[in-house]
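Service request form, structural biology core

Requester: graduate student, group of Dr. S.
Request type: structure prediction, single chain
Budget code: on file
Notes: please return the result as structure tokens.

Sequence provided:
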Amino acid sequence: VYDLLGRKVKTLASGYLDAGIHLTAWDGRLSNGGAAASGNYYYRLETESYVLTGKMMLLK
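Core staff response, request fulfilled:
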């Protein structure tokens, strides 16, 4: 998860996952355990064949 300035604020999953459907959720916490501020954030999903980025909004 990245903030609007492109800084990584949280890693939700890393490493290799077998093929299939995988779900993850962000609880609004930063890597240091603090609460993220309400606002827009970006996510990045990377596989061997493509990279997907998207925008999400955290509302409290």
